[in-house]
Design brief:
By secondary structure, the protein is α+β, with helices and mostly antiparallel strands. 58% of the residues lie in helices and 8% in strands. It is built from 35 helices and 9 strands. Strands 3-4-9-8-7-6 form a 6-stranded antiparallel beta barrel. Helix 18 packs antiparallel against helix 19 and helix 19 runs antiparallel to helix 20 (454-470). The protein is elongated, with a radius of gyration of 40 Å.
Length: 898
């Protein structure tokens, strides 16, 4: 009866003036208070009865003046909260969802409500009183002069559906259908309508939903202004009256007309209350708003997407205006983007069975790019009637409080990086078990993209750690564990609640350079509803340090183990855990013994092998014309990695011919077959930190004398023989050598198995320089063996073995042709005349020094051997004498020198 009564008041020609409508609203307004007092009764009503009550309240408030409304809000905090609870019920019970809502959203229609079935139209569930109300409303012919200026409920949104070809008006059709189908269901009534009339009914339902939402939005704007002006002297703390309405608005379907009206109000509310709405107490609100803005950025409708971009810019502006930074907002947006990736289908299947980027991902990417587009944003704000430019603070704010577009660009790029990493990971789903290198890089990119959120950063690092352990890449897995420990340690140092300091973080960074050296507030800012730095504890850091110690031990990188234990010991000292300290020191003893064993071994210790791999071919995509250095286990040979990479890429290239270039010559990519793909795989040597790259000595010596502690490499080299006539090999007098030095984008061991080559340089050595280098290499190897200190008599056996090996390769009769061939090539006949005086002197000096060191080594050998090695010693002496005699033909002075 109340609904019918209000309907009659609304359309009574006598009460169309604003003052008449206000008088009627004030008469009925006490009923709203009575309804608030009987809220338990309201909640026990059925859906149709609730809608009757709600439409009555909205109709009363619609014509009420602001003074009466504000006066009611001033009376009681509890009643005001109940009032806004009724507004929430309005939004829920008058939500309009069409079956074709996917026209607005992506093809998968994934949204927070996407898994729920579409509800039947609320007009199908209306009570008889509401049906009568609608019928009365349809019969009224209210012209433009009779429509209130602020009227929402009965304004026509689309007049194009009115056509002379319609058999009936909607009013007549509803009246006829109800009179002829007494007792029939409303669904049958709907189906009996002409399609055009059914479309008009659909439009009416959408208009009513929009009208209800717009009415609620108008009330929110009034409430926001009253709170800002302190007219309402109440304590609402987090402004939950406003935040709860906004969360419902964004999480439910809304007509386009509502989205158009929402964002000016949204902007106004954040201008007035941005500091409160973006405070830590409103984390849940900010997180949900950010999520739904990103969800709207996926919609197909361009107008909705543009408004989502505006909403994101409003958040950025508010964050910077009130907090002078956007790091916390970056954390929130990164979290919500991660959650959205599980809701949005970022890939879809092509006709050939391969995956490609979906339309949803493309639209989200475009929206994030538009977010940082300055010129386009100004146009959008002007087009949608917003009062201010997007990133200009209010007049009261000082210039330094204004956010710049460069900061928005940084935020946008960070989100795009996370989107790209998620997309690449999804595209690799079908080949992850085959191509473990790409799989590991995918996890790595996800870890880096979500680095602003420690929880997500750690999650992807641990996925990467597991992937490396499956590949038995122990050093890389250990680096992941160190990186996780670094995240925890940084948070603890920033909060000053641990036993570590920034010096300990620096020490950890020497093991894993990826650990940031700067202690920032990013980890602290990540305390957002379920994601928090409070989970980062000393115990969790120790746990991952111990895991790293175990994995480095498996990789036999014992020097890293020692550094890690030195970070764990302070924790046990602070806790007086003497049992754990004893275990740590026992482990340190074993570690240092292992290091001594590696250093004293006659065979140089190598923890890994390294290979340069070049990719050439359009089918390689992003890899085309790029070079990488791969780190493999020490037992992986060149043939093994050739076979492995060939198997991986042959299966990924869809029948394209794959060639492996077997040598290390310089590749001219433009001269290769366009339709084929090429891999060039070359073994490379790591460069020691203090190594002279211009040295002409052979690389065997450089590696054998390197300390096992220096196992972090970011430079690599390989030598390529060539001749000036185009042939790869020639005689000693024609053999040149090109030394290529590669600089990678990071150092090994890294979080991934391969690193891109960022810089490449080359040196060339002439034939005589090669010859001098070969002789100097043998000389240095012998001298190093003679001068290396020995700690005890027990070291004599390995020393004797290594000395015999080197001498046999230097002066034995069957192998001394190497030195003689140098003399033949450069010190006899015409070649000798081509040498410059300085080169000739350097070559002779190198030969004389070599023979002198050989003579000294033979004497040392005699002192070390027993009776069983006398015969071998005699062979060495005979070989040395024979070699001296041969060399005297080219260098007569050698007899007097020796």
């Amino acid at each position: 009866m109340l609904v019918v009564l209000l309907c009659k008041h609304e359309f009574d020609i006598r009460y169309q003036k604003l003052e008449d409508k206000l008088y009627i609203a004030q008469l009925y307004f006490p009923l709203v208070g009575q309804m608030l007092d009987e809220m338990p009764v309201f909640y026990n009503l059925g859906s149709s009865e609730k809608r009757e009550v709600l439409i009555t309240i909205l109709q009363i408030i619609r014509n009420l003046d602001d003074t009466s409304l504000i006066k009611a809000w001033q009376q009681s905090i509890a009643r005001t909260r109940l009032f806004f609870k009724l507004l929430e019920e309005c939004l829920i019970h008058f939500e309009h969802r069409k079956p074709d809502d996917s026209m607005l959203m992506g093809s998968s229609s994934r949204s927070p409500l996407g898994d729920k079935p579409f509800p039947s139209k609320y007009s199908d569930r209306l009570s008889p009183a509401i049906n009568h109300y609608l019928l009365e409303a349809a019969r009224q012919e209210v012209g433009p002069q009779g429509t209130p200026e602020n009227g929402y409920l009965w304004q026509r949104v689309n007049s194009q559906l009115s056509s002379p070809s319609q058999p009936y008006s909607l009013r007549e059709a509803l009246a006829q259908a109800q009179s002829s189908r007494i007792g029939a269901s409303t669904l049958a009534l709907r189906e009996s309508l002409h399609p055009i009339l059914r479309q008009k009914l659909e439009l009416w339902e959408e208009n009513l939903s929009a009208a209800v939402s717009l009415q609620v939005l108008e009330i929110i704007e009034k409430f926001s202004g009253a709170v800002a002006s302190h007219t309402i002297a109440t304590d609402y703390g987090k402004l939950d009256c406003i935040t709860s309405i906004f969360m419902i608005v964004f999480s439910h379907n809304q007509p386009l007309a509502f989205w158009k009206a929402l964002f000016p109000v949204f902007n106004s509310v954040f201008e007035l209350h941005g500091a409160t709405l973006m405070a830590r107490e409103n984390d849940r609100f900010l997180k949900q708003i950010a999520f739904h803005l990103l969800r709207l950025a996926v919609f197909r409708n361009v107008n909705v997407r543009k408004r989502a971009v505006i909403g994101l810019q409003i958040l950025v502006r508010s964050s910077f205006s009130y907090f002078m930074q956007t790091s916390r907002l970056r954390v929130v947006l990164t979290i919500t983007l991660s959650e959205l990736m599980s809701e949005v289908q970022v890939t879809h299947m092509k006709s050939d069975g391969t995956l490609e980027e979906s339309g949803e991902a493309c639209r989200l990417r475009k929206s994030l790019e538009e977010m940082a587009d300055e010129s386009e944003s100004f146009n959008i704000f002007e087009e949608f009637g917003l009062p201010e430019k997007p990133l200009v603070a209010s007049n009261e704010q000082s210039p330094e409080h204004c956010c710049t577009w460069s900061e928005v660009k940084v935020l946008s790029d960070s989100l795009l990086l996370a989107l790209d990493a998620s997309l690449e990971h999804a595209l690799l789903a079908s080949v992850m078990t085959l191509d473990r290198y790409s799989a590991a890089e995918s996890f790595y990119k996800l870890a880096m993209a979500f680095a602003p959120v420690p929880d997500l950063h750690i999650m992807w690092l641990l996925h990467l750690c597991d992937a490396h352990q499956e590949m038995q890449s122990w050093a890389e897995a250990a680096q992941c564990a160190v990186a996780v420990a670094g995240v925890v340690m940084q948070a603890l140092v920033f909060r000053n609640d641990g036993v570590w300091s920034s010096d300990h973080v620096c020490a950890l960074r020497k093991i894993c350079p990826m650990v940031s050296g700067e202690i920032s507030s990013e980890a602290s800012a990540a305390e957002v509803e379920g994601y928090g730095a409070s989970k980062l504890t000393v115990d969790s850091a120790v746990k991952y340090l111990q895991l790293a110690n175990k994995l480095f031990s498996q990789a036999e990188l014992h020097h890293f183990c020692a550094s890690i234990l030195e970070l764990v010991i302070p924790v046990y000292k602070s806790r007086r855990a003497y049992g754990q300290l004893a275990k740590c020191h026992t482990m340190l003893t074993n570690i240092y013994e292992s290091i001594l064993e590696q250093e004293s071994s006659p065979i140089p210790f190598a923890d890994a092998t390294y290979y340069r791999v070049g990719f050439y071919g359009e089918k390689f995509g992003k890899l085309n014309r790029k070079e990488y250095v791969y780190r493999e286990a020490r037992d992986v040979r060149l043939g093994d990695i050739m076979e492995k990479l060939s198997h991986i890429y042959e299966s990924r290239l869809d029948g394209t011919t794959l060639h492996v270039i077997p040598d290390s010559r310089q590749v001219k990519a433009d001269e290769l077959q366009a339709e084929a793909c090429y891999l060039q795989i070359t073994a490379v040597d790591p460069v020691m930190e203090d190594e002279d790259l211009g040295s002409r000595r052979e690389r065997i010596f450089s590696l054998s004398t390197g300390s096992v502690r220096a196992r972090v490499f970011d430079r690599f080299l390989f030598d390529t023989p060539f001749t000036k006539n185009g042939k790869t090999q020639g005689g000693l007098e024609d053999q040149w050598k090109r030394r290529s030095v590669l600089q990678t984008e990071g150092s090994f061991p890294a979080l991934v198995n391969r690193l891109e080559v960022m810089k490449s340089e080359s040196l060339e050595f002439s034939p005589v320089e090669n010859a001098i280098g070969m002789i100097e290499t043998r000389t240095a190897a012998l001298r190093n063996e003679l001068e290396e200190p020995r700690s005890s008599e027990g070291d004599q056996l390995p020393r004797l073995q290594s000395l015999q090996r080197i001498l046999q390769g230097s002066v034995a009769v069957q192998v001394n042709s190497g030195v003689l061939s140098v003399c033949t090539a450069f010190l006899s006949g015409e070649p000798a005349t081509r040498l410059r005086s300085q080169e000739l002197q350097q070559l002779i000096a190198a030969l004389l020094e070599f023979m002198a060191v050989c003579k000294r080594a033979i004497r040392v050998h005699f002192r070390l051997i027993g009776d069983e090695d006398q015969e071998f010693h005699t062979q060495l002496v005979n070989g040395f004498q024979s070699l001296t005699a041969e060399l005297s033909h080219y260098i007569p002075a050698i007899l007097s020198e020796l």
